[in-house]
Amino acid sequence: MARRLAALIVLVASFLAGPAACQGASICFSGWLRPLNPLLCPRGSRMNRLPRQRGASPSGFGLSYGYYNNRRSSSYCPRAEAIVRDAVRKAVAANPGVGAGLIRLFFHDCFVRGCDASVLLTATNSGNADVEREGPPNKNSLRGFEVIDAAKSALESACPRTVSCADIVAFAARDASFFLSRGRINVRAPGGRLDGRESFANETDQLPGPFSNVTELQASFAAKGLSSDDMVTLSGAHTVGRARCLFFSSRFAEMDPALAAKLRAQCNGDDNTFANQDDVTPDVLDRQYYRNVVDRKVLFGSDAVLGNATETVAQVRENANRVGAWERKFELAMEKMGRIEVKTRAGRDAEIRKVCSVVNS
Ligand code: HEM
Fold this sequence. Notes:
The chain is mostly helical. It has three domains: 2-49, no CATH class; 67-205 and 340-351, Peroxidase, domain 1 (Orthogonal Bundle); 215-335, Peroxidase, domain 2. Helix content is 39%, strand content 4%. The protein is built from twelve helices and six strands. It has helices spanning 2-17, 80-94, 96-110, 145-158, 165-180, 214-222, 228-235, 257-267, 288-294, 301-308, 313-321, 325-337, and strands spanning 22-23, 27-28, 195-196, 242-244, 274-276, 350-351. It has a two-stranded antiparallel sheet with strand order 1-2. It has a two-stranded antiparallel ribbon with strand order 3-6. Strands 4-5 form a two-stranded antiparallel ribbon. A hairpin with a 3-residue loop joins strand 1 (22-23) and strand 2 (27-28). Helix 2 (80-94) packs across helix 3 (96-110) and helix 2 (80-94) packs antiparallel against helix 4. Protoporphyrin IX containing FE is lined by residues 97, 100-101, 103-104, 107, 141, 143, 208-210, 212, 217, 231, 234-235, 237-238, 240-244, 247, 302.
């Protein structure tokens, strides 16, 4: 009887959880589950094991500014950054949402196996097909791949096998931030990353989820050597782009009533409908996110907690009120994120891919 009841609870919970929220006994995407579903995440599963080990601040050893401009180096490709910028400019002009996608792609790349373009792979060295792109945080959600591919193909014509996909992802996020902020955000982006040769869906459980609490958010960033301030600063990226109703429809009651009513109508009971993350300036990368946190106009629980937790509320208020403060912090935090666990020495696990979705044969 008890076993039947447990099975029923798991069935109901997994139905509510949506696709593949939990994989196996030891990997659990708890921050990606609706509040009811912690039932599915046994204590001791990877995401629930807190506090995580704090990583050292990312050194980015081996990266340098203007990496492709050195005439004496075999990596010389003076148009490299301009080629990426052109591809991003075109894509963002056609659809600003793709710019948001590129910023997120960079975050999801760097948090899993470091900034090594593992997030782009569909074919890996080991033959594993269950790649990061298939992981619950990424599947049917990440976008911007075609912009990376367009830049890569132009770069292969200009300088074959010279510019890594990992650097393209970093430059593209830098450029998307520039265009979406109307030129107000200039991230410095050193180059020299190599591309990884492996990618595993289950490792995307390192990405914090929309239901994560502040301790979980801080722990996931600390594990990558990023501070709580970095976490609050980078969350400001939720002032652009979109999100599925699945991740916020359980918290309409906690939102500003007018916004909740608008979103409820927009979602209309369909979990997979998308809504803008920032209802005020949806396509501009600006500090409006922090005003939204204060005004209860953010979508995720993980956004709202920043305005409630004692460790983060002061920074939220400062970012909301002080002109220009957040933009400078965002530039530095993005650069820091781009230094996470980079591979800079060619070898069995690092190369410059010819095609960004496939390891070299
Ligand atoms: C702090 C923890 C974070 C959580 C829990 C989180 C969670 C999410 C979720 C659930 C979505 C919507 C996905 C969907 O519905 O398909 C999203 C979208 C997005 N996130 Fe985050 N995120 C976090 C941090 C970040 C960071 C650090 C960045 C970049 C610096 C970022 C940039 C974005 C962007 C730009 C979008 C919109 C993407 C698009 O429109 O394609 N997020 N995030």
